[in-house]
Design brief:
Distance between the termini: 37 Å
Shape: elongated
CATH architecture of the largest domain: Sandwich
Helix content: 10-25%
CATH superfamily of the largest domain: Probable inorganic polyphosphate/atp-NAD kinase, domain 2
Order of helices and strands: EHEHEHEEEEEEHEEEEEEEH
CATH class of the largest domain: Mainly Beta
Number of strands: 16
Largest sheet: 11 strands, antiparallel
């Protein structure tokens, strides 16, 4: 099995890189059977974005802090662990952000697409699902659309639902909403197209973020799942991503 190792700049990750390369060798990304990122969740997301257009599976090893998206770090029996790993397929969200100046920016998100107010003024956002207006004016700090993989990240901290892996649904979660007073979000089918229109966008500017890619001063954002893109992430059977997400509901 040909492995390609990627490592964050942290001392811990760089030390692991030297040790693992010495033991298992290292191949170019286009020649590898499996890519092994070394770092934390942030570096894992960065690596998945880098590999999004490739079909090469990814087996991350935790050399960061939280490591929710990573496997436990052990140097022994790495090839055997990868051979027995469970394959989880992630489908990203596509964000198309229309800016006030007329520019259009596009990006893919593995976790979520979020809209946030840029100033102390609350955001005023119209919420549409498949071009049908569901909320005429959402008032608050912002709103997001999260995938099952991202449902335990920013979405969970905003009191959004935890979505089991493999579910054909997405979470639409408001961020510190003020109006409508009782609306706490929705679960929608993954084939739906979500559109957010920014009301009073000059007075109340809003930015849109696709994972770590930010677009400022947006007036509309369209979001849809890209089922044609599948990212293969490998996890140890005894501690796979599906179980981790399920367990988050009982913490």
């Amino acid at each position: 099995m040909k492995l390609a190792f990627l490592a964050s700049k942290s001392v811990k990750a760089q030390r692991a890189l030297k040790s693992l390369v010495k033991r298992y060798g290292n191949h170019e990304l286009n020649q590898a059977d499996v890519v092994v990122p070394l770092g934390g969740d942030g570096f894992m997301l960065h690596s998945l974005h880098q590999l999004m257009e490739k079909s090469t599976p990814v087996f991350g090893l935790s050399r960061g802090t939280v490591g929710f998206l990573m496997n436990a770090y052990r140097e022994d029996d790495l090839i055997e662990r990868i051979s027995k790993a469970k394959d989880t397929v992630l489908h990203p969200l596509e964000m198309k952000a229309f800016q006030v100046n007329g520019q259009i920016k596009e990006s893919l998100a593995i976790n979520e697409v979020s809209l946030l107010r840029q100033t102390k003024q609350s955001a005023h956002i119209k919420v549409k699902i498949n071009e049908d207006t569901k909320i005429e004016r959402l008032v608050g700090d912002g709103i997001m659309v999260a995938t099952p993989a991202g449902s335990t990240a920013y979405n969970l901290s905003a009191h959004g639902p935890v979505i089991p892996m493999g579910s054909e649904i997405l979470a639409v979660t408001p961020i510190s909403p003020f109006r409508p007073r009782r609306w706490r979000g929705a679960i929608i089918p993954s084939h739906a197209v979500v559109s957010f229109e920014i009301l009073s966008h000059r007075k109340r500017p809003v930015s849109a973020t696709s994972d770590n890619f930010e677009v400022r001063h947006v007036c509309r954002v369209d979001i849809r799942a890209r089922k044609d893109i599948g990212i293969h992430v490998l996890y140890d059977p005894q501690h796979n991503l599906e179980d981790r997400i399920l367990n988050e509901q009982f913490e």
